Amino acid sequence: MGAILKIIAQRLVLGGVTLLVVSLVIFLAVNALPGDFAEAILGQGATPEAIEAIRRDLGLDRPLWERYLVWLARMLQGDLGVSFAQLNFQSNLGGTQLKTVAEQIAPRFANTIFLAGVTAAIAVPVSLMLGVLAALYRGSIFDRAANIFTLTSISSPEFFLAYILILFLAVLNPVFPSLSNIYEGMSFFDRLERTMLPALTLTLVVTAHMMRMTRAAIINLLASPYIEMARLKGLSPMRVIVVHALPNALAPIINVIALNLAYLITGVVVVEVVFVYPGIGQLFVDSVKIRDIPVVQACCLIFAGAYILLNLTADILSILSNPRLRHPK
Amino acid sequence: MTRISRRGLLGSSVAAGVLAATGVPVFAQAKRGGHFKAGLSGANTSDSWDGRTHSDLFMIASAQGAVFDSLTMVAADGTLVGELAESWEASPDAKVWTFNLRKGVTFHNGKSFGADDVIESLQMHVAEGAKSAAKPIVSAIAEMKKLGEHQVQFTLQSGNADFPYLMSDYHILIYPAGMIEEAIAKGIGTGLYQVESFDPGVRMVAKRYPNHYKGDSAGFFDSIEYIAINDNTARMNALLTGQVHAINRIDFKTEALLKANPAVRIQEVTGNQHYTFAMLTDVPPFNDVNVRRALKYAIKRQEMVDKILLGHGMVGNDHPIGPANQYFAADLPQLEFDPDKSRYYLKQAGLDSLDIDLSASNAAFEGAVDAALLYQASAKECGININVIQEPADGYWSNVWLKKPFCAVYWSGRATEDWMFSTAYEEGAPWNDSQWDSKDSARFQELLKLARAELDSEKRRAMYREMQDILRTDGGVIIPMFANYVQGVSNQIATPEIIGNLWQMDNARMAERWWFA
Question: Could you tell me which residue ranges the Solute-binding protein family domain spans (chain B) (predicted)?
Fold first, then answer.
């Protein structure tokens, strides 16, 4: 157990360094984009004086390294800052209360997590089941059909899948709403109904990976002697796979599931825009459009953090699920 | 299809007389009730109830269109009517304006409306450091005086006959005095609808304010919900699947799909929004009026309307005044593609052929690059070689517009002639994108000042006609087309016969004017 804690500690420190690098890269990348917040927000109304005024108010006229260090110092104290858009309003208005980036992101992030949760609740059992069945009947029509279907869906762009689903489930047969504008105060079931189409789209995207890994890991084990033994004992093929093979195949499967869960948080940008789902992905797109660096930075940190934590969880779980790693000699 | 413009209606003065005599008969059959949902573009996470920052449809429809009021309002037929102001009168030089305010109006928090609210709300726009888009309008007021609880007097720096029109600007909303910050935070206005919830960039819900001063003549829905849908396809889907009752900005390319659906209809009006190619008249060769004239005859306008707007627009005549303006000179001869005339003016300029650069980007308007290429093709027949430079969309307005000598531009147009001209054609105005000044036409600049202070409508019409003619003949801006406002409405919703053409969605006032059929 001590070894595991040590691993966790090590990985968390490394994760912290990764976040730092990510924040620096994003900061430089956003600044390298043509135009800045002042130009983006003013649009056609961009006179040199107005641009200067906004840059001065937001500190955009100071050198790059200075801005980064100020942001970093605040971030290390747990302060993600205030978005440029909000600051711009304040300088317009005088003293209305400001919404911090954290307050702006929190409800959006909760929505994204909800979508990821619904998707995971559908996608993980479905792909495990498909994987197990495909392994059981490998080479059969079912195996091939499942493979072709999932590979087709993972190979199609997300927006295309989204439109296909809209066409079949919203336009031709109005089962689910094509608009997923969930909001505070909605009942859980309303929310679930509205979230269904984006969740199904994401399910189509992530299923192939998980299902094929499950299938491959199980088939890999089916050649091992202990499976042979189980079969010779006269156990049913289903029981051999679920009880004997699956537990030993868990490590790689968990790894893939964790990676895909991370994708559900970071890869939702397109799906959220298509379905008008008020999640973090939409906020991210809006913020990049107007070069609102504090929000972009915060979103990227959340994305990177999700990847780091879920990867860590995957590694820990695969250690825990493997007795050889759990009890090292 | 609803294609009746204000002009078409007012063309018969009888109709106008009937309208004036019976009030607003178009609402006679309107029914109350229902929850109206619209999917609108132009929403941002940075949106707020601060009118000074409003620039796109979502907030204009939510604020001026539902929750807040202004002093005056442009009715669907283009006439100016009072909203919070009941009546107004001007001194003979159009310098001193007295507004009589409506009595018995309350804000949504119960505070009663009076002169202080007007004065304080206007002062917001000229406050220290405020970056209001309406600052030029308000800073033209030299003095604001409260004559009584319900009477305000404005003294302007110089006479302006359009002043009451300017008070209908969507930036100039009336907030309760002494609590403006709170009103901006919560959305407290005097409008027909009271905010229930507002999530910037996502959604706005409001319910009908009981006992509103507009009574039964407007605001027929029990509640309204505006949903932010910036994505074109998502907006179309929302209308087609019946999740919203109306959407703005139909994508022309997919319009046929909407037409095929029997449950929805398409509304189209031609307003003042126009697409232009602006040249800097102080940069050679554009400083030569003959070069400009040669360019005016080298463009195929109808082809642009057909191919860029897919027919949803009308040809422009190189002046920025559109059919939604009062003094639109429809009788001016239309500029046509004419290679002979173009070559003639080129000769007058002492040139056999002309090589120029034209900067374009789809940031200027959708299809700007294609439009520039069409221009290139037609100009070639006239001996003018246009080299189209595709500029990056990012930073287009800061790096290309007003800087490159010839570039594509978008204008939404203005409610009044003077406003449009003084924004983009007055000597020294910051957005004068053709550097149009007295070196080009001293007469134009003189007329601009004269017409501004002229209260006699017929005299103004003559002056504005002459100004439109000057721009048409000599101006530095090619205006090949005016783009229609095209929107989709469910057949569950009934709309008045005349749809406002000043802005999208019935001047953004669908919550006020539409009802469930």
Answer: 80-428
Using a CB–CB cutoff of 8 Å, tell me whether A184 touches chain B.
Answer: yes
Q: What is the dihedral of CA B388, B391, B397, B399, to 10 degrees?
A: -100
**Does pLDDT of A9 surpass 60?**
yes
Which residues of chain B lie closer than 8 angstroms to A162, CB-CB? none
Tell me the C-alpha to C-alpha distance, in Å, between residue A173 and each of A177, A181, A270, B234: 10, 20, 24, 17
User: What is residue A114's predicted lDDT score, i.e. its pLDDT?
Assistant: 93
State ipTM.
Answer: 0.81
A271: nearest CA in chain B? B234
Say how many CA atoms lie within 13 Å of B189 toward its Cβ: 30
CA-to-CA dists, residue B214 to A260, B83, B103, B507, angstroms: 56, 9, 12, 17
Do B182 and B242 belong together in one domain? no
Any idea of the CA torsion for B55, B61, B63, B64, to the nearest 10 degrees?
90
Which amino acid, one-letter code, is at B143? Answer: E
Q: Are residues A282 and A146 in the same domain?
A: yes
Task: HSE, CB side, 13 Å, CA atoms: give it for residue B180.
Answer: 22
**What whole-number distance in Å separates Cα of residue B509 and Cα of residue B362?**
29
Asked if the structure places residue B306 within a domain, the reply is yes
Domain boundaries, position A87: 1-99+292-329
- Print the SS3 string covering A128-153: HHHHHHHHHCCCCHHHHHHHHHHHHH
Q: Note whether B289 and B316 are same-domain residues.
A: yes
The CATH code of the domain that includes B438 is: 3.10.105.10
Are residues A47 and B430, on separate chains, in Cβ contact within 8 Å?
yes
Residue whose structure tokens are 């711009």: A88
Cβ under 8 Å to B: A residues 220-249: none
Alpha helices for chain A (secondary structure H): 2-32, 37-42, 48-58, 64-76, 84-93, 101-136, 141-155, 158-166, 188-222, 225-232, 237-239, 246-266, 269-275, 280-289, 293-320, 323-326
pLDDT at A92: 58
The first and second tokens of residue B430, run together, are 């910051």
Sequence letter at residue A261: L
pLDDT of residue B428: 82
Residue A227 has pLDDT above 50, yes or no: yes
Residues B204 and B239 in one domain: yes
Query: What pLDDT sits at residue B224?
Result: 96
> Could you tell me if B313 and B355 lie in one domain?
yes
Query: Is B157 within the bounds of a domain?
Result: yes
Q: How much is the pTM?
A: 0.85
pLDDT of the residue at A44 = 65
Whether B255 and B398 map to the same domain: the answer is no
Q: What is the arithmetic mean of pLDDT over A15-25?
A: 89
- Pair (B463, B496) in one structural domain: no
Q: Is A179 on the interface with B (CB under 8 A)?
A: yes
A156 shares a domain with A296: no
A224 lies in the same domain as A90: no
**Closest in B48, B227, B394 to A34, CB measured:** B394
Across chain B, which has 517 residues, the per-10-residue mean pLDDT values are 42 37 52 93 84 87 95 90 94 93 94 94 84 83 94 94 92 93 91 93 92 89 93 87 91 82 90 92 90 94 92 92 89 92 92 91 88 94 92 79 90 88 87 88 92 90 94 93 93 91 91 93
Please give the helix or strand (H or E) that residue B240 lies within, else none.
helix B232-240
Question: Do B395 and A39 meet the contact criterion of CB atoms below 8 Å apart?
Answer: yes
Residue B196 and residue B170 share a domain: no
